[in-house]
Amino acid sequence: MFGKKAPPPDPRLQASKMSALSWAWGVVAGVAYLGLIYQFLSLLAGIVNGAAGAPSSSPVWTPPSIDHGLVSIIAGGANVGVFKLTGVYATVAQVSVIALPFAILAVIGLGIASHPLQTQIGVHGLLIAASIVGLVASLVLFIANVATLNNGVQFAVAIATVVLVWILVRLQRLVRRFYDRAPAIATIVLALATIIYLIFSNGVNFQSIILTQIDVWLSIVAFAIALYSAVNLARHGRAISRNRARMAARPMPQQRRY
DSSP 3-state assignment of 255? Predict the structure, then answer.
């Protein structure tokens, strides 16, 4: 029937999905840490150029310029500017970056372990803590390598682009309704917004902002999704425990005697 509400989702199934989501994105964080994207592109360039017989001085295909992984960024001391902080902030930055590989392994291991241990609050808490540590470390590297003073305008434009696309997607019905009511005003406002955006984005190289530090961006996204899945996993685990408690407290039906 059309008026009938759909039954609530099974928390056990939802918990299984969140478990897979957490360890899968933990693997993605490991890829970003080890720089496997750079290694894959280098291998692919060698295969393509080797098959074409092109000399190394004039290759047929050159891979884009990207970082060599978070481990190279940390080892290269590119984040030394962040550690000029004093007090608690410097301590948090140093500890989080040092603990980054352990946080990656913890997210993967705890994500896999949470599948059979869906109601274990301790596993969920550790998974949340590991995701937070990894996210903090990724943000430290992000501030040191991407959101710098030299990249201030380019970074602001890149973030504004992402936010603007998200807003337009969310408000597409409202924009269409605005155009239907007042097409002249709507088109003028859109034109002015486009001109303002083009003025501020003049000379911005989005490749240098995102692609050259792709592993930093990827690590932030990975740990943010891992944290999201860990929080939802804890919520579904509590729902599973409540359902089991209600089933245990339900009185057994008495058998009839004939």
Answer: coil
**Contacts of residue 248, Cβ cutoff 8 Å, sequence gap at least 6:** none
* Residue 204 domain flag: no
- Assess contact for 96 and 205: CB atoms under 8 A: no
- C-alpha gyration radius of the chain: 25
pLDDT in tens, 136-165: 888 888 877 766 655 656 666 666 666 776
Residue 122 lies in a domain: yes
Domain total of the chain: 1
Give the range of the structural domain holding residue 221, as residue numbers without chain letter: 12-54+62-147+213-240
Q: How far apart are CA 78 and CA 142, in angstroms?
A: 11
DSSP per residue over 9-38, as a string?
Answer: PPHHHHHHHHHHHHHHHHHHHHHHHHTHHH
Q: Which of 19, 216, 48 is nearest to 124 (CA)?
A: 19
Tokens (6 digits) for 83: 């550690």
State pLDDT tens for residues 17-46: 888 899 999 999 999 999 898 888 888 888
Residues 70 and 148 sit within 8 Å (Cβ to Cβ)? no
Q: Measuring CA to CA, which residue among 118, 101, 93, 109 is closest to residue 12?
A: 118
137 found inside a domain = yes
Tokens at residue 39, please? 């290694």
Residue 190 in domain: no
What's the predicted TM-score (pTM) here?
A: 0.75
User: Using CA atoms, how far apart are residues 219 and 25, in angstroms rounded to an integer?
Assistant: 9
The helix/strand/coil state of 116 is coil
Contact between 223 and 140 (Cβ < 8 Å): no
Contact status, residue 226 vs residue 29, Cβ threshold 8 Å: yes
Which strand (E) or helix (H) includes residue 110? helix 100-113
